[in-house]
Design a protein that fits this description.
The structure holds two protein chains of two kinds. Chain A is mostly helical. Helix content of chain A is 68%, strand content 8%. Chain A has nine helices and two strands, in the order H-H-H-H-H-E-E-H-H-H-H. Chain A has helices at 8-20, 26-43, 50-60, 63-72, 88-111, 140-150, 152-164, 170-197, 201-233, and strands at 113-122, 128-137. In chain A, helix 1 (8-20) packs antiparallel against helix 2 (26-43), helix 1 runs parallel beside helix 4 (63-72) and helix 8 runs antiparallel to helix 9 (201-233). The longest helix of chain A has 33 residues, at 201-233. By secondary structure, chain B is α+β, with helices and mostly antiparallel strands. In chain B, helix 1 packs antiparallel against helix 4 (85-113). The longest helix of chain B is centred in the last third of the chain and has 29 residues, at 85-113. The chains are: A mainly alpha, B alpha+beta.
């Protein structure tokens, strides 16, 4: 008689598998787990060593592969059904996030201004002294927060919609959710950084324009791409 | 095998593999490990043994196979899988459609190269 296999590697494998199978019917889950356990009981002699157990588990394949097969048979509604996968979802998310980007650009642009003031004074003899003094009124993290607060009415509902809709993958949802905050951070952060490293007008200007191009072209491109892909996956 | 081949195989196995299992059970009842070993022998029908168990659970749920417990000489009782009437019919139906399907695919592939 070979005893019930209780090797720690087997137990941890079965625990992983059980965790991954939480989404399927309890009876089916128990049956799959019992089948795999019995398979290992049969494949492994009593008192099998670590290497033997590892090779038996390798032949079984990863718990994820087994779970994928289990879910492949579930009649799960494919993407493209349900109210959150209608075409209006990507359209709304696209428009709202587009407006949010625009708002963030305008807010960050109006908040972060630099000025070159010439400090003018008179010396004792009455001669005018001019001192080129570059002032950069960076807005710092508070500026990013303000830009986001001005535009929350656009990006917040868009983020909620994107997260709730099955039309986007997890990574795409993260990208959409970070688009607003990320843009604000870039718009505020790049000029700040350039000011910190190179205290001159040119550097600030270059950084400001770069951040603008990044946000408008890069962010816009990402947004359009994600929303068009989701629109193709959506159904009426 | 070229890496991309595995993806195509995964698609092709769907639908065909469960009927291969049914065909194995046609003459005799088998237990899981035995079915798994036969299916993975060539690495074409199944790449990892574990995926057999969700498939068997599905076949039982849809009433195509039935399980019975049988004592085994050297271990705990084993769960043996056997064909039900529904399973036999499903297998016959697959056999009828498979041949023309296979020939049509072959013909299409031949046609593509000439």
């Amino acid at each position: 008689m070979n005893a019930h296999t209780t090797h720690p590697l087997v137990e941890s494998y079965l625990r992983d598998l059980e965790g991954l199978l939480q989404g399927i019917d309890a009876g089916e889950r128990a049956e799959v787990l019992a089948g795999v356990r019995e398979h290992l009981d049969g494949a492994l002699p009593a008192g099998a060593g670590d290497d033997q157990v590892r090779s038996a588990l390798a032949e079984l394949g990863s718990p994820q592969a087994i779970a994928d097969e289990a879910y492949a048979s579930e009649p799960r509604p494919p993407a493209g059904r349900g109210p959150m996968s209608r075409p209006w979802v990507p359209l709304t998310v696209g428009i709202l996030l587009g407006l949010a980007l625009l708002g963030i650009v305008l807010a960050a642009g109006s908040l972060a201004a630099y000025s070159t003031s010439e400090t003018v004074g008179m010396d004792a003899a009455g001669n005018e002294i001019t001192d080129e003094d570059l002032q950069f009124s960076g807005v710092g993290p508070a500026g990013a927060v303000m830009a986001l607060m001005f535009t929350w009415i656009f990006w917040l509902p868009a983020t909620v919609l994107a997260v709730a809709s099955p039309l986007w993958t997890g990574r795409q949802k993260v990208a959409l959710a970070l688009l607003g905050p990320g843009s604000a951070a870039v718009l505020v952060g790049l000029p700040e950084l350039s000011w910190a490293f190179a205290r001159n007008q040119l550097a600030i200007n270059a950084a400001a324009w770069t951040s603008l191009v990044l946000v408008v072209i890069g962010g816009g491109w990402l947004l359009i791409r994600l929303c068009r892909a989701a629109a193709r996956r959506s159904s009426t | 095998m070229v890496p991309g081949d595995e993806g195509i195989l995964t698609h092709l196995r769907r639908g065909a593999l469960e009927h291969c299992v049914l065909a194995m059970l046609e003459d005799e009842a088998l237990y899981g490990l035995d079915i798994a070993r036969r299916l993975t022998a060539d690495g074409v029908l199944m790449s990892s043994e574990g995926t057999l168990y969700p498939l068997l659970a599905r076949l039982r749920k849809t009433g195509l196979v039935d399980t019975t417990w049988q004592e085994s000489g050297e271990g705990p009782p084993r769960r043996y899988y056997s064909l039900t009437r529904g399973g036999t019919e499903s297998l016959a139906s697959f056999r009828r459609t498979w041949k023309p399907f296979k020939e049509a695919v072959d013909a299409a592939l031949e046609g593509g190269t000439s």
